[in-house]
Structures are given as structure tokens and as C-alpha cells.
Fold Phenylalanine--tRNA ligase alpha subunit.
Amino acid sequence: MQLPEQQVAVLEAASADEATSVDALAERADLPPETVTGAAFELETEGLVAVEERVDETVTLTDEGADYATATLPEIRLYEAALEAGADEEPVQMGQVIGASGLEGPQVDIALSNYARKGYGTIDSGEITADPDADPSADAEANALEALSDADEAPVDAVDVDADTIDQLDRRGLLERRESTVREVILTERAVTELMAGIETAETVGQVTPELLTSGDWEDVEFAEYNVEADAEEFEGGKVHVLRQMSERVKDVLVGMGFQEMDGPHVDADFWINDCLFMPQDHPARTHWDRFAMEQPSHIDELPEDLVADVERVHREGLGEDSEGYHSPWDEDFARALALRGHTTSLSTRYLSGTQIGEIEPPARFFSVEKAYRNDTLDATHLLEFYQIEGWVMAEDLSVRDLMGTFEEFYAQFGIEDIQFKPHYNPYTEPSFELFGTHPTTGELIEIGNSGIFREEMLEPLGVDCDVMAWGLALERLAMLTTGAEDIRDLHGTLADLEFLRNAEVTY
Ligand SMILES: N[C@@H](Cc1ccccc1)C(=O)O
């Protein structure tokens, strides 16, 4: 019989009498464990070995756990200080004992919350007592920490610590549990027979190399077969963040649909963020409740004078016979105030006004995928900052059909075919629509964007005399639909779920 070199090595290292772990075989055969696992599976298909699997739970101490293993648990330090202060005789002021214990910061709370639970004494109205019969050397948690720090990454069964103590240490964040699959290999009878008859080593090649290709040797060598089921080492390499992947993909799609990208400041004057959008200055979204104002610098230097005058005129008086202005105060200083943009529609007003890249002639399509900032209450669908997919199309005679058709075409590229529209109100669009999509796992309808056709009152001061349809869509919400994430906080921010980010696929 002929077998590849690594399989022969594994056969020779294994035994017919007792199962040997992959790690032990790897050491004996001087091969990486992944290679041994791969070879073992090959040998199993040949009927030469049996591979048995079991899941071992191992525990390791966290950094905090390791610290306590060397420097004793905070509650024991508190007990020792309490004894020292005579708290076994009569209650002592807590502050005095804590001071003497040398405990600091969060350790104080940790000590206090475990002290009474473990029967070291009582804590009542600022005084502490120590039970003279308590015995720190019999503290199950302290002893377990010591046992575990000696047996690094020990399988739970192998250390002499009871399950309740392990649970308790786990709750305290002092250890980490991990599961690992242990594979053991045992020779079959057939393998024993074959080994006695002698097994030859077949030269096989595991990888095509440039040398093999240029020399032409690839034609003669024998290639090792792939075993796609073999376990390989898990490799957590760097990876493009899910949202970044999503944003790149959105940009590709929009560029494919003929859009050009806009760019502009994150901090901008309220003039560009709101006034140019015919947003009245007393609109609730313009109060400090919603907006992150800039303190330094607080106001923009430059604004195009003519445009300011035109915007003010329309705010005050409206436009033409059918339009009413707001007849409310309009203050230029208020318009100059700087804030983190609450939407990226500030980029659209800059571009439409002709001040960003010069006059834009219809037909034209522009987009951005950029951050916007809002003082929202954090929840499963809201963060303080998010990415908006801003966009607009400037052309003659646009209608709601064009708007809806554009969304259908856009979302279809992500496999989303069931968007729904709901009539809405924005001061700057008429008509306006909110967009909704169905979450793939919860089935809930979630709002994914806001859109409409810009009003005359907005376009006339900007100097645009044809139709413009526009939207702001939420990148995170789109990502929730494509990745199945149920909570936006899993995607980014301090609570992001690393496991999810490692494994989530952006599908489209
Ligand atoms: N600015 C709107 C989105 C929008 C842009 C353009 C037109 C209509 C709506 C928002 O943030 O919700």
C-alpha cells in the first residue's frame, strides 16, 4: 500500500490500543495539528483509523482573576483589615477599615458586594463587623483561583473545582470558559495489518508553486487530494468592517446608476443644513435638543451674500401667489451658527447652489455616503451618528414614478424587492415619502429612508429652475436588512458585537 508521507507519519504515531489526541500525535509526528487532523480524516475514509470527537470545556482566568490569584480577593483583604481593626469584637466605621485595607476604586465595591454574601461579616449603616469564625483559607473561590492559575487552560473536568464555584467566578468575570473540540485517533485492525505488511510513502504535492509551473514538473507529480471537511486553524485576520463593505457596495451601485459623488464638511453652517432647505428657524429640529452645536468656532465666516438674501426673502414671504412664507423671525446670525450636520442634505444644498463645484446643468445625478449626527435617544435602531445615503436627480419633469422607480432599482441590487412607501412631510419636499423595508428575520417593517421632490421655495433661491428629486437613506438600516442584524448597536459603537462583525456577510 502507498500513502502520502503525512498520513504514514500519523499511522506510525497512532496506536491500536488506546485513542491518541491530535495534539499528542502532532507532537510525536512533528507535524502541525491541522495537518494531523487533515491526515486523520483521510485515513478514516480509507478505513485505517477511527476518529472520535468530544467537546471539552476549558477555563482560563481573566486578567482580573489572575491578579486575585496572586494578590488575594478584595473581600478577603477587607476581612483581614476588619479583623485588624477589631471588628470581630464590635462594629467599626467602614471608612476606617476600607482605608486600612488599601482597596481602591472599583475594588471597594467588589469587596463590599461579596463580603456579606460569603459570611465574612455584616455591613450595616456605615459600620462593618467581622465574623471571628470565618476562614479565608477555606474560601472556595480563592482556592479555585489558585488551582486554576496553576493549571493554565485546564479542561474543567481535570481541575478539582466544583461547578458552582466555577459559575460564581464566571459571574464575577474572573474566568473565561471556552469550548474546544478534542479529536482522538485510534488505529483500525486493517491499519495494523497494512502496517505489518509495510506501507510505502507516496510523494504527493500539496500546493502548486511557481517553480512547478515554470519547470513543467506539474505534469508528472501526484497532487494530494483536498479534504474540504478537515478542520483548519481558525484565523481571525483583519477584515473590512461590515458597514464599510456596505458603503463601498452602495457607492458602486450608485456610480453604476450614473451618479457622481459629493463631498463636504461634517461641521457646517445651519444655513446650508437648514435654511437653504426652507426649514423655518423655529423648527423643533433646530433647537439644541436635537443638534450638536459647535462652541469654537461658533459661526461660519463666509456665506454667499446674494443667496443669503434670497433665502431670507423666501422664508419671510414665500414664493409667488400660492406660497406663504413663515412670517416668522429670520436671523442671519442664527443661520451662520455651526453644528455637526444633522443630515447630509447640507451637501446637496451646497452643490445645488452652484458654490461647491460651479453651476450644475440638468440632467445630473449626485450622491454621498457620509456621516450625519443627531442627538437621538440610543436604541435598537438609533445611534448618535449614522451614515446617510444622500442623493438627488436634477432633470426636467420628474414625477413620483421616477422617485419610486429609482428606489426600486437601487434596492433590488441588494435583493430587496418589497420596499413600501408612506406619505410624509418635510418642509423642503412636496410630495414626501418615507421608505420601509421588511427585516429578514423578525419580519418587522423598519424605516429605511426619507425622500421627496424638492419644493420651489427651496430651489428658486438656489437658482435651480428644473425638477430635483432627492432622498436620505440610512446605511445602517440597509445593513440590518442585508446582514440580518437586529440591533444597530451590534454594528458599530462601543457595544458592537465582535463575533457578529467577524462573521457577518454582506450579501446582495
Ligand atoms: N434630510 C432628510 C432626507 C431627505 C433628503 C432629501 C429629500 C428628502 C429627504 C432626512 O435626513 O431625513
